[in-house]
Amino acid sequence: MGVVLPFEDKSSDPEASLDALVALVSGGMDRVNAMILSRTGSEVTMIPEVANHLISSGGKRLRPILTLATAALCGYGPAEGERDGDVKLAASVEFMHTATLLHDDVVDESDMRRGKVAARIKWGNEASVLVGDFLLGQAFKMMVEVGSLRALDILSSAAAVIAEGEVMQLTAAKNTETTEDEYLAVIRAKTAELFAAACEVGPVLAGRPKSEVAACRSYGMNLGIAFQLVDDALDYGGTSADLGKNVGDDFREGKITLPVVLSFRRGSDEERAFWRRTLERAEIEEARDLDTALGIMRRHRALEDTIERARHYGAMARDALALFPKSPMKEALLEAVDFCIARAR
């Protein structure tokens, strides 16, 4: 069980949504979705079954939306004719993300994903890993078809960094001595790198100057960090509907996230002993221990301060777009930052 905590939002708009951004890229996303369906096809029946189980489960598709949006922000779009580089790269980004989710659920032994039974529960760990590999292969095929070596370099480098982040997380798993800097390095690699790459390839396709490419990458990186920090807080202070998985999964899986890092650092000897017992030795007495964890976090404002840090990175994401002139797309991208923070309201 979880306890819904009201986080006072001091900066972002609590009414923010992705509606404007989704509307602006709706035509491109229709093409992305069609491409995703076509590229999951295989004569091996289990491949489309496993892939579509997750792909069709209602994710926000935020990463491919950002690829289309930053490409359009930088002038790549209908005016350039029927080129589909942005669509193929957006689909590649979504396939990369889906592959990491399939792999993550195996590593984390998760039972739920996006409110549904995880693919590994339905088809087994082996199928989940191998279908994830198939999606990565399809992603790289589409990248090559686009014909931009720079975009291929960005996304292939991101794939390597994400894998490094996964290994870093394994190293930090159950280690209550993990520092805030060490944890931020993990989420920068594991989560934010794909946000950054998704936003960077758009201006690269459009042939924009380095300053605009760097600005879009900075926007994506900081948005990705903020997004993950909010997720960390929601795992303890949200609801299953917010997360698409069970509240408290991070706790049960022994994950060291920022609320734990802050609580451990600020806690008493008795509280640190609690974290060592539950997270390091995995001696969890289910609901009672989760409630105790929440109580410790409340005592030390760990959830509120995690959200405050998310606002900090959100502000940097907004600042990154300052060099672009005012436009509906820029405003929609700025609102996307508010939306990511406001999920914690």
UniProtKB/TrEMBL annotation:
<dbReference type="InterPro" id="IPR033749">
    <property type="entry name" value="Polyprenyl_synt_CS"/>
</dbReference>
<keyword id="KW-0460">Magnesium</keyword>
<keyword id="KW-0479">Metal-binding</keyword>
<dbReference type="InterPro" id="IPR000092">
    <property type="entry name" value="Polyprenyl_synt"/>
</dbReference>
<comment type="similarity">
    <text>Belongs to the FPP/GGPP synthase family.</text>
</comment>
<dbReference type="Pfam" id="PF00348">
    <property type="entry name" value="polyprenyl_synt"/>
</dbReference>
<dbReference type="InterPro" id="IPR008949">
    <property type="entry name" value="Isoprenoid_synthase_dom_sf"/>
</dbReference>
<protein>
    <submittedName>
        <fullName>Octaprenyl diphosphate synthase</fullName>
    </submittedName>
</protein>
<keyword id="KW-0808">Transferase</keyword>
